[in-house]
Amino acid sequence: MTAEPTQAGLFTAFQRVDVDGDGQLDLVGFTVILEELGLSWSRHETQDRFETADANRDGLISLDELSAMLAGYGLAG
């Protein structure tokens, strides 16, 4: 992993990856964001953390859900 992501960096990355502008990311978008932020998680870790972030279990995560999940791991300060 490289430097920890900031809230501003997270917002910018989220906006860039959320190409349809609906404010939601699927697992593929989540994976792209992790790569953009320099986070190196295995496929299993990525899937597990996506499911953790997806609080309402709709298969999508919002910026708030992503931010909360990363904060839970001490990231995106």
Arithmetic mean of pLDDT: 87
The spatial strand order of the largest sheet comes to 1-2
State the order of secondary-structure elements, H for helix, E for strand: HEHHEH
Number of helices: 4
In short:
With 77 residues, the protein is mostly helical.
Structure description:
There is one protein chain. By secondary structure, the protein is mainly alpha-helical. It has a single domain, classed as EF-hand (Recoverin, domain 1), CATH 1.10.238.10. 55% of the residues lie in helices and 5% in strands. The mean pLDDT is 87.
List strands and helices in order, with pairings.
Elements: H1 7-17, E1 24-25, H2 27-36, H3 43-53, E2 61-62, H4 63-72
Antiparallel strand pairs: 1-2
Helix pairs in contact: 1-2, 3-4
Task: Provide the descriptors you would attach to this structure in a database record.
77 residues, mainly alpha, Recoverin, domain 1, 4 helices, calcium ion binding, EF-hand-dom_pair
